[in-house]
What we know:
Layout: H1 12-20, E1 27-28, E2 32-33, E3 35-36, H2 47-57, H3 68-87, E4 94-98, H4 101-115, E5 121-125, H5 130-142, E6 146-150, H6 161-165, E7 172-178, H7 190-200, E8 205-209, H8 221-224, E9 228-231, E10 243-247, H9 249-252, H10 274-294, H11 300-324, E11 325-326, E12 329-330, E13 338-340, E14 352-357, H12 362-371, E15 374-375, E16 377-380, H13 386-389, E17 396-401, H14 408-423
Parallel strand pairs: 3-15, 5-6, 5-7, 7-8, 8-9
Antiparallel strand pairs: 1-2, 4-10, 9-10, 11-12, 13-14, 14-17, 16-17
Amino acid sequence: MIGSINVDYFSPNLLAEIRDKFAFVEDCPFEGKRVFFENAGGALTLKSVVETSSKFAAIPDNQGRANPASMALMGIIQEAKNDASKLFGSTTGQFFVGESGTELLFRLVRNAATSAKAGGNILGSSFEHPATRSAAKHWASQTKRQYINVQHEDSSGDVTAEHYSQIVNPDTRLVTILHASPVTGISVDLKAIATAVRSVAPEAFIIVDGVQYAAHGGIKIDHYNIDGYAMSPYKMYSRHGFGFAWVSDRLTQMNHEQLLDGPNENWELGTRDTGSYATISDVVEYLEWLGGKIENTDSRYLKLHNASKAIAAQETALTNLMINGQDNINGLKDLEGIEIIGGEKNPNRKGLVSFRINGTSSHAIVKFLNEKAIRTHVRKADHYSGNILNPLGWEDCVRVSVCHYNSSEEIKLLLLALNEFQLGPPTN
């Protein structure tokens, strides 16, 4: 043990059980031993997801046929959609698979923009990932509408319902919202923003980017009063190769791309991978297992609720340790010249801390950490992160993103490495 006090929310035994559920927890298949703090780029994959993906990749049967295998595949897809409804708190609308989270966001925005009443404006924020900002600006241009930008708060790193209230008007036809930033980890009060929008523009379509948020906080679609929510399963313990989205009944019934004479409600184009759907069920099964470890209950709702609370508690413990330090190990806030996006104490932070050290290249820091077998990431002021970094006057930052399977011991290794770096940073 590096430090004398364990700050993990999970007991050592439960954390060991959790870590055993995932592939490559401590090892990179290309580099060997490492600590993984690049979860915002893609979470670790459940071993059950790996097994499920392999299983379904070998099945030759197609969906929609009158044979036992085909009917079984259709049943698995429906079960996954039912599981998703429980996980994401939705009793209406539908879930469907697409190419990626970004592709699905573009599609949701496109169909909302072309279905909305003519004229008016499209509203988005400078807080957003380029997936929604690009889609909204493009379709504002294509539909001859004004795109209006809601400016986020540079100091706190977030955007609030008040910010939206100051800009939204009765002519607003479409609004995009980022649930949590992949640059800062700061989340927004989605329900409050949606409520503020609806109070002024009740018929506006609201599309939400939940890619960064999904793995870190409980999602309750029924509570938000929105029309679309998209996520990337590879950032929520599943795998690459597909995106997952929910669309409201209202938007489902609008004119959208579909096969001629096909079902009006169908949002899927072509045959989707049954295995991708099945891995959603794997994620739900894992979270129910975790929630059952927190409290012995037969209720699926309580299991998922408890898992969400426990995940948030573990990640908060880890980010607090990262910032504040422990056992004579300096935290980020005690490093000379440190600046943390969103500040040292931000209740809206979701498993991610981004920082820089004044006068020091973030690339040099990440390179040094890599040499210590600690995986982090540089965010540059480019088309992905410039909207956040440029207003701060930053060229880049170091992003350290944790997930609930990370440990306080791993955080302490990170802090020891950063303290060593400050004592004598390498020349670059």
